[in-house]
Amino acid sequence: MLTLEEAQDRAENLVAAARKSGADAADAIYVCNASTQVSVRLGALEDVDRSEGEEIGLRVFVGQRSATVSASDMNPASLNSLVERAVAMAREAPEDAFAGLAPEDRLLRKRPALLDLADDSDPEPAALRARAEEAEDAARSVPGITNSEGAGASSGRTQIALATSHGFAGGYAATSHGTFTSVLAGEGSAMQRDHASHSVRHLEDLDEAEAIGHRAGHRAVARLNPVKIESCAMPVIFDPRVASSLIGHLLGAILGPSIARRSSFLLDSLGDQIFDSSVTIMDDPHRPRGLRSRPFDGEGLPTKSRAIIDKGVLTGWLLDSASARQLGLEPTGHASRGVGGAPGAGASNLHMEPGKITPGDLMADVKRGLYVTELIGMGVNGVTGDYSRGASGFLIENGAVVRAVAEITIAGNLKDMFRAMIPANDLHFRYAVNAPTIRVDGMTIAGG
Predict the structure, then answer these.
(1) What's the pLDDT at 448?
(2) What is the pLDDT of residue 39?
(3) Interacting residues of 109 by C-beta distance below 8 A, sequence separation 6+
(4) What is the pLDDT of residue 447?
(5) Family per UniProt (predicted)?
(6) Mean per-residue pLDDT pooled into runs of 10, the chain (448 residues)
(7) What confidence score (pLDDT) does residue 413 get?
(8) Are 68 and 86 in contact (CB under 8 A)?
(9) Does 208 lie in the same domain as 317?
(10) Residue 7 C-beta-side C-alpha neighbours within 13 Å
(11) Using alpha carbons only, what angle is made at residue 169 by residues 10 and 349, rounded to the nearest 5 degrees?
(12) What is the number of structural domains in the chain?
C-alpha cells in the first residue's frame, strides 16, 4: 500500500499530465483499500477473504465540457492512455454551464483537522477468527437459540488522496474494525432471526465479541411467537437501531442535486419549522474517530460541523459545486465522490441530539402502540414524502412492551412524521447516522 505522500503524488502527477495533454482543468482522486475478513458458522471456519486494490479517477474539463474516467491499472503507460482518453472524451461531451472545479477561493488552504481516523492495529487472521468464534459462541449460548447464520470479524485500511489543477492537494488514512453475528431462535416455521454488529475506526473502541453475541441471541429470542395486530392508527416508537433511517430520509430530501432537479418533498421548506423545536440534527465531519469523518470534501473544500435542523428549523441544503451553481448558491463542503464519476453531495456523521426524557417516559402514556426494531423494504417516495415500510417489533400496552409482533406495515407522510417526532435522551454514537429512541404519534398500522 502506498504511503499518503505517495498517494498524493500519484493524484497530482495525473492532474499535471491531464493539463499537459490539453485539459483546461482537472482533478484526480486516488483510493487504496486493504481488508481482511474471517467468517465462521457453527464453530467451523467458512471463509478467509483478503483483498487489496487501488483505483484512481480523473475528471478533466475542456471549456465547459467534461469527462470522467477511472482505472485500477497503475502502469505508467496505462495512465498515459487514461489521460489521453479522458481529454478526447471531454472534447466530444456536451457543454454544461454548471460544470467546473470548486471555487478556488474556497479551497482548504490550512492544515487539515486531525481526526484520529487510523490506528496501527492489523490483527492476524487467527485473531479475527477467534473474535468471530467468540461472538457466535456467545450468541448460541443464549437459551432458545437453535441455529446460526454465522459470524465474522474484519479489519481494513483505506488511503485517500485528492488533487486539483487549481491548487488543492491532500490525503488521509482511515482504518476499520468490525464484528457481526446472526442467529436463529425457535424451530421450524416459528423460527425468528436477528443479529448484532459493531464497527469502529480504532480496535480499542470495538465492543467485546461476547457482548455482541449475547445481544444478537437475546434479540432473536425476544422475537419468538409474534402476534398479528389489527389495522389502526397508533403511536410508533422507533428503536435507535432503526430511528436513524428517518434522518436518512431527511438527508435525501436536502441534497443539492435533489433540490436542483426539484425532486424533493422539502423543496419549498427552506427556513421553515419542519420538526418540533426540541429537535436539532447535526452534521459533524470532524468527530474524532467518526465513521464518516473527513477533513475535506470530494472537491477539496473544508468541512465543518453545522446544524442542518436547528431547533426544528431547516437551515439549508447540502451542496456540491455543480448543484450550488445551478441554484445560484455557494457550495457547503458536502461534495461526495468516488473514483467512477463526478462529485455529488452527501453528509458526514449525522446525529439527532438527545431529548430530555428517558425511553421509559416516552412510552409511559402509550395505552396501545408499537415499538419497531426492524424495517423492511424501501417504500418511501422522495418527491411526495409518502412513507410505507414493512416492520416488526413489539406491541406496547399501558406503557410497557408486552409481546413480539410481525408482518405489519407502518405508513404516514414524512412531513407529518417529522413534525410529530419526540426524541428520548438515550443517544449513543455507534453508527455513521445516530439517533436516540424516537416516538411518532398517529401513524397508520396495517396488520396481518
Answers:
(1) 63
(2) 98
(3) none
(4) 80
(5) Belongs to the peptidase U62 family.
(6) 91 97 97 97 96 96 96 93 96 95 95 93 96 98 98 97 96 97 94 97 98 98 93 95 96 96 96 97 97 97 97 98 97 94 94 97 96 92 96 96 93 97 97 97 89
(7) 97
(8) yes
(9) no
(10) 23
(11) 110
(12) 3
β-strand pairing of 350-352 with 433-434: parallel
Whether 246 contacts 236, CB under 8 Å: no
Q: Are residues 107 and 174 in the same domain?
A: yes
Check residue 22 and give its pLDDT: 96
392 located within any domain:
yes
Q: Are residues 8 and 156 in the same domain?
A: yes
Residues 97 and 211 in one domain: yes
Same domain flag for 147 and 231: no
What pLDDT is stored for residue 387 in this prediction? 97
